[in-house]
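It would be a great kindness if you could assist me with a short task in structural biology. The matter concerns a single protein, recorded as an amino acid sequence and a row of backbone structure tokens. Could you please explain, in whatever detail you think fit, how the structure tokens follow from the sequence? Thank you for your consideration; the sequence and its tokens are set out here:
___
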Amino acid sequence: MDASNTGNHNKELFPNCNVAFSDDSNASDIDIDEIVASITTSQRFDFNSTKSLFNIALDGFREKSNEEIDRYKESAQKVEKEWIDFIIGCIDVFKETIAKHATPFQCEPSKDQQAYLDQMPDLQNFLRNSVAFVKDATTFLEKDHAEMSELQLSLMDACQHILNSESRIRLNENLAASDCTERH
């Protein structure tokens, strides 16, 4: 590259830099701080103010939003009134249908069923018997169940003892048999 091309090439790389680079220039004439400042200012991104959310003017926005809010409230009230009218209409139709087609509910037992119900015990006897049952159940749980639990534990201990004894006997028999085979 010759000197003229080098200068043009450097101007393309650093367009805002006012320092000319050539082969015959003295390197001591270059101010490094000026070059750095020039490069950093030219390389900064310029944000468009219309793209920023923080630069929105709220003067006209409030007026428009109040109008939009009022329209939304009116439409919401209209929809709510339509739904209420629809539900009330459905309830009225339902009431009319029930009034037309419904018969009063009557449930009377037949003579056989009534005779069976008459033979049933009354509520007072049932409650008295249930109190006696609860007392018997409590007595069983407190006294008899404790005795049965002790018997069950002693039975489990006896079974474990028998199992251990049988295991010991079988082990001794096997050891004795293995000693006999080793001696011969």
User: Anything to note?
Assistant: Residues 1-7 have pLDDT under 50 and may be disordered. The two ends are 108 Å apart (CA to CA). The chain is about 75% helix and 0% strand. The chain has three domains: 3-44, 57-103, 141-184.
